Amino acid sequence: MAALRSRGQLIILCVVLIVCGVTAPRWWPRVSAWVEGTVHANRAAAASGHDHGHGDAHGDTHTAAVESLELTPQARLNLGLTDQYLRPVTLSTYRRSISVPALVVPRPGRTAIRVSTPLTGVVTHVHAVTGETVRPGTLLFEIRLTHEDLVNSQTDFLRTLGELEVENRELERLSSVAQDGIIPQRTVLERRYAKDKLEAVLNAQRQALRLHGLSDRQIQEIEQEKHLLRDLQITAPEVDRHDHPEELRLSTAPLEQVVLAPEPGEESSHEHLLVVEQLDVHKGQSVTAGGNLCQLADLSRLYIEGHAFEQDADVVSRAAQRGWPLTAVFPGEAGDEMVSGLKLAYVGSSVDPATRTLSFFVDLPNVELQDQTNDEGQRFVLWQYRPGQRLQLEVPVEEWADQIVLPVDAVIREGADWFVFQQNGRKFDRVPVHVRHRDQRFVVVANDGSIFEGDVIAMRSAHQMQMAIRNQSGGAVDPHAGHNH
User: Fold this and answer.
1) Using CA atoms, how far apart are residues 367 and 382, in angstroms rounded to an integer?
2) Can you give the pTM of this predicted structure?
3) Residue 456: closest CA among 92, 95, 81, 94
4) Of 167, 374, 427, 474, which residue is most buried, by most CB within 10 angstroms?
5) Angle 119-124-125 (CA atoms, 0-180°, nearest 5)?
6) CA dist., res. 11 & res. 152, Å (int)
7) Residues 6+ apart with CB under 8 A from 443
């Protein structure tokens, strides 16, 4: 039975071979092409996989090996890593902010000061020069008076002074005679009444001269010298502080004065500098009472007027309620200049119907950049901030305490990772960190132990240092690594 079964299988195999040989022209080309293509594909895949895996392993080995960068002193200077940009990490308060457009503006009623003449006359001397900086009390103009009412008032004042002197001498003579009983005491009493009347008239005339614009010093000069005032000297006025208790009042109602709080460290006797912005008269010109002579400007303190959109009005109001300081960002040739710690003065009470913005005002203390005096003794001061300058105001939205806040140039991004460069002797170690928040200028890094308070970090040039590490690792340099366009 086994022999018969083997013989049958052999017959079947022979039949299959005969059939395959007869039909080979039909199926053999297809099978041959399929086998050849499969072999070539497997070889190509194997070669590609080998090269890619080797390259990754090689690159990973080098990248993992190079995590530090050694910089020479010259390289540090080339990267701008001076002491200013190599600082230890500190914990600070970060305020997430929004940016709104703003403009430097004068303080209403304080910056611009108009100087006018109280009397009619002819300008005889112009001592002020446009652009000059003067102190309060500096002589600006001299005017020859031609005001008829003033001449008559001065004449009446001098006449009353003379009559009062005669009355005083007569009263002194009669008082000595009355003691001897030569004349009755009634005569002396009548002379005293006459003296009191003259003093009352003299006081009224003195007040009239004040209303004409003469100062107490000028009235006293007329009284002592016994001659009419012919020339009027106009000086730079004091900055209005509402501290004139002897100022003439025409009302008996009690006054509630406006309180002008001085800046921290500013004394009440602080001397303000006034800039002559505009001259309105020239020598020989006739001026009438109340006419403008010049315009002065007190630029020591200005306002920043911010324009917040309607949706940002609540942010501004919340910052005002919590007393958060604001930051001004001035554009400049060498980069943006930041002025932080500014105080919000007040918020407008209405929205501009044209621009749909809410105005708010921030105090801006000014800074003297240059102070020089020319050969003629004229002083010129250059101020850092001027009305009309455009800028951006950063208004805080929320506050995070005890955060690691670094400049945006101190952190570099590569893929999903963020890195900072920590100083370690002459080397800078690349340390991965977790970035919680990032804006245009700052990055908030999580205080999770990757870097600690007191670690010295490179506060700039992280992008250039990352490129140097990639070059040492043998990897291709991506010039846009860590930058968002």
Assistant:
1) 9
2) 0.63
3) 81
4) 167
5) 110
6) 157
7) 405, 406, 407, 408, 410, 411, 435, 437
Two structure tokens written together for 205: 């005339």
Q: What is the pLDDT of residues 107-118, one digit of tens each?
A: 998 899 999 988
Question: Domains plus CATH for the chain?
Answer: 68-92+401-473 (2.40.420.20), 99-107+300-373+385-398 (2.40.30.170)
Per-residue pLDDT tens over the stretch 171-203: 877 777 666 666 777 777 888 888 888 889 989
